[in-house]
Amino acid sequence: MNYKRSSALFAQAETVIPGGVNSPVRAFKAVGGSPIFVKEAKGAYLYDEDGNRLIDYINSWGPMILGHAYEPVVNAVIDKAKKGTSFGMPTEIETKIAQLAVSMVPNIDKIRFVNSGTEACMSAVRLARGYTGKDKIIKFAGCYHGHSDSFLIQAGSGAVTFGSPNSPGVTQGTAKDTLLARYNDIENVSELIEANKNEIACIIIEPVAGNMGCIPPKGDFLVALRNLCDAHNILLIFDEVMTGFRLAKGGAQELFNINADIVCFGKVIGGGLPVGAFAARNEIMNHLAPLGPVYQAGTLSGNPLAMAAGLAMLNELNNNAEIFNRLAEKTAYLHKGIAKVLNENNITHTINRVGSMISVHFDKAKVVDFETAAKGNNDTFKTFFHGLLNEGVYIAPSAFETWFITDALSYEDLDFTIAAVNTVAKTL
Ligand SMILES: *Cc1c(COP(=O)(O)O)cnc(C)c1O
């Protein structure tokens, strides 16, 4: 394939945008080469600036669950835009999407809309601290909750139980309040709680991890977390920015039949516009300003275009619940097909899948946490990524990302993809 125009556009971008991108993973640093510039997209396909067609397995990192330029969503945005794009005043559509979201998701009474998943998680943690009167939080290594300071934390050294900053600019003072646990390791969480008795406000987790590849929660791990939280007066925050409205109408809470205390949303809930949200029962949500003392605000929060896109998206999902089964079936088909051709070509691999999230890891061992995810062969992944790209299949440019299956994918697309994997496997 020819990427001349993409490369030229990237060179221009680099002169005025740091690294040429507005979010680091887009820059292809993990796989090498120069990023693809998108011109437009429709359904399951991206069309780049050089005229190449690519089958899209990123789908804007999740939001485009029904495919690109999905008409009901696009039309809702166009209609709204003609009536004014922002007021900074209440509008009826905010209540409509809130009512719908509350009806779809278990165990929430109220929801507050923000502009990104980062904002949702940051605000959820503030609310948990304000509600419990405690300062510390537990997060899991490899889980991503956006780029706010409290989450940019890596494991501390040796016996130190608190984390240390993993980005310059995050202070030691902030890092000391974030404790880092191993995903799928309940003993580890238990130890952290014991060592920080009565200090932990919340545990925040991706109920299915999607930011270190796709990692399902083991057996009763989430139940055990729920029980630990109840026993120690700790709020359980499900970061469902990726899983919300994707794994089921009610997200992972519904899929695993476990209630979280606060739930964060993003991605699908905005239908491709910048939206995040966090939600909980009244007793918790009523602590938020202007009802309560915990401050949180946003000039563009509840923006009419964003709400129109989100409402149209949630309506489609709510009225067509079979979409979730269909997505899971397509993903299972892809899983089976990829596993078959990788096996036939003797490529060491392991595949993780939950619903419409799937990831291919180039390692024999099971991938259950950040440590095991990091063991995958990155050189193999790079060759795999560029090989697929050359075949017209676009997966995330990093071994630590999930593929997001969209309902716009046909079985012909899936067969095309499996054939592409077979071709590439011969070069690995
Ligand atoms: C994408 C993501 C976020 C951050 O959302 P942004 O909209 O990029 O700020 C937070 N949590 C999870 C689980 C995510 O996948």
From TrEMBL:
Q: Which residues form a coiled coil?
A: none
Q: Which Pfam families match?
A: Aminotran_3 (PF00202)
Q: Which residues carry this modification: N6-(pyridoxal phosphate)lysine?
A: 267
Reaction equation(s) it catalyzes: (S)-4-amino-5-oxopentanoate = 5-aminolevulinate
**Quick one: which pathway?**
Porphyrin-containing compound metabolism; protoporphyrin-IX biosynthesis; 5-aminolevulinate from L-glutamyl-tRNA(Glu): step 2/2
Q: Where is this protein primarily located?
A: cytoplasm
UniProtKB keywords:
Cytoplasm, Isomerase, Porphyrin biosynthesis, Pyridoxal phosphate
- Which Gene Ontology terms describe the biological processes this protein takes part in? protoporphyrinogen IX biosynthetic process
Q: Which cofactor does it need?
A: pyridoxal 5'-phosphate
Q: How does it assemble?
A: Homodimer.
Family as reported in the entry's similarity comment: Belongs to the class-III pyridoxal-phosphate-dependent aminotransferase family. HemL subfamily.
Spell out the protein name for this chain: Glutamate-1-semialdehyde 2,1-aminomutase
Protein source organism: Hwangdonia lutea
